[in-house]
Amino acid sequence: MSVQQHTTDPALEPAHQHVHQHNHHSPRAAHDDVTYTTGNPESSIVPPQQHRSSLDEKRATHTPPDYSDHEKNEAGVVDASAGTNSERSTPIGWRAKIGPVYRHRRPLIHLAVFCISTAWWVASLVLHHDDKNWVVPFLVWLAITLRLVFWHVPSRYVSNAIKAVWKNSAVKVYDMIPSKFRTLAGATVAVAAILVGSFVSEESADNTRENRAVSLLGMAVFIFILWATSRDRKAINWRTVIGGMLTQYVIGLFVLRTGVGYDIFSFIAARAADLLGFARDGVAFLTNPETAATTNFFFSVIPAIIFFISLVQVLYFIGFIQWFIIKFATFVFWGLGVSGAEAVVAAATPFIGQGESAMLVRPFVPHMTKAELHQIMTCGFATISGSTLVGYIGLGLNREALVSSCIMSIPASLAISKMRYPETEETLTAGRVVIPDDDEHKAENALHAFANGAWLGIKIAGTIITSLLCIIAFVAFINGILTWIGSYINLRGDYDLTLQLILGYLLFPISFLLGVSRTNGTNPTGDILPVARLIAQKIITNEYNAFTDLTTDNPASPYYGLSPRSQLIATYALCGFGNIGSLGIQIGILSQLAPSRGGDVARLAVSALISGVLATLTSASVAGLVVTTQLSDFTRSQ
């Protein structure tokens, strides 16, 4: 039977259309009459069985138009001998091959992993029980073991037991306290814990109880200033404030006062320093070993940032970053009573940076309350990212102090932001912690993710370089004008009229309240003015310039010869993105994520900057409170 040649697209022929039975979409349609069409111009009512048989006849009798070879390639038509088009375009991936084997052999695979990790842990104890600490290997083994166990045993059994103990202990005590006295009781417990932890320990030459008392006074003054300038004092959630400040203090006490805490953070910091070494290998290949060994910003900090961002993208692709952040954010969410989006950003900021952390909750940014926008910006200003942390370790700064400062500033930023700008609206992510999928930037495989990370690292590094260049040049321009003005009133040399000098004197009381050494050398004010000028340098330009001045080896520098206590407090006080340059970065990123909220972001940015700087300063106060005889371990990198 001959078939008429059609001029229309063969895909429009009724016989070529996909056929499937439509299920009813709701119970209401269960008894409705359904109209089926055979492709003819006139519509008809045909039972489903006859409709299917008529289409089968058309498939058997209809011959599609002849294609040229080129058209066959365009339309996806292949010869039977060559196999189907779907088989050629969708080969079986390695995941599809390994997946069934893993599912059937998962208990044996997990048992093998457990045996290997246990053997490694036992061997490490036997071989290095004298020359290496046992805490970190034990924690690694414990983490692997617990992860394997919870693959087979639901975690609710453990979480329900913890909840039961919590409800039968702390919750019962909490319920016994009248509601109007609960905030006062919580504050009393927090203050008592801080007093006991700060003043019962022994004194050292540079860390007397008098100096600790000054640091404690500084924390109290910072909290009072935030309360006095709060947007709505009646709306302050004191649970978040008390819990955040107490958590910050406990972390500082754990790191600076206990050997276990020091060992854990020393291990984390050492691994961050290793990343710097890996980046140097790449620089040495592109240039030479001598160039890679320099402390030049372009060759030491920038490559480490690019490599770290690439590594983060790979970890994000395999799901580790999301898993880690969601666990950390859950603790922040339940412990401090903030929204889910705030918890995710707070947990992610010290690891992936101020802009990238906001991108984790990109779908929620246009719908965030003003308090949430204020919070996520405060988190960005209060700490530094993991990539810059790696770079700053290369300057010779103490690794443990930098890492612990990043973690301590997380709860502090939450507490301070909720005092400065309390929540008065209904949040979209209240009661849940979630990281939405980012399908727009999803990589196809780990290599693709690494390449995307390298390109993202180049863009971020370029942003950092251009921001530094422009901001430093602009500040130098302003300082040139001020110096010219000051020359007519004999302000020269160390007292050149500059922004740093002006803000340094304005921050003199802040530096005093941090508890830096008041007697050091021949300077009548001790280290107070130099530390104040370092903080001013950090706010006006950036923390890199301030850290460079802090680690100077030039005896003529006013920052040379700071006491160990002052070095430690200054390291904590400078460890944050709270500067004018980051102000523009935060406004630009959030305005791109939510163009409709650009006005709100700009109005809240300065308040968030001040809050972020204060959060970093409270971490410095805590460091001054808890550090004792091991002070020399936290000054310069060993």
Automatic annotation (TrEMBL):
Compositionally biased tracts (Polar residues): 35-52
GO MF annotation terms: nucleoside transmembrane transporter activity; symporter activity
InterPro entries, per database record: C_nuclsd_transpt, CNT_C_dom, CNT_N_dom, Gate_dom
This protein's UniProt keywords: Cell membrane, Membrane, Transmembrane, Transmembrane helix
Skewed-composition ranges (Basic residues): 17-28
Domain Concentrative nucleoside transporter C-terminal: 402-624
Span list, region Disordered: 1-90
Domain Nucleoside transporter/FeoB GTPase Gate: 298-395
Gene Ontology CC terms: plasma membrane
Cell location: Cell membrane
Annotated membrane topology: Multi-pass membrane protein
Family (UniProt): Belongs to the concentrative nucleoside transporter (CNT) (TC 2.A.41) family.
Protein's recorded name: Uncharacterized protein
UniProt organism field: Fusarium equiseti
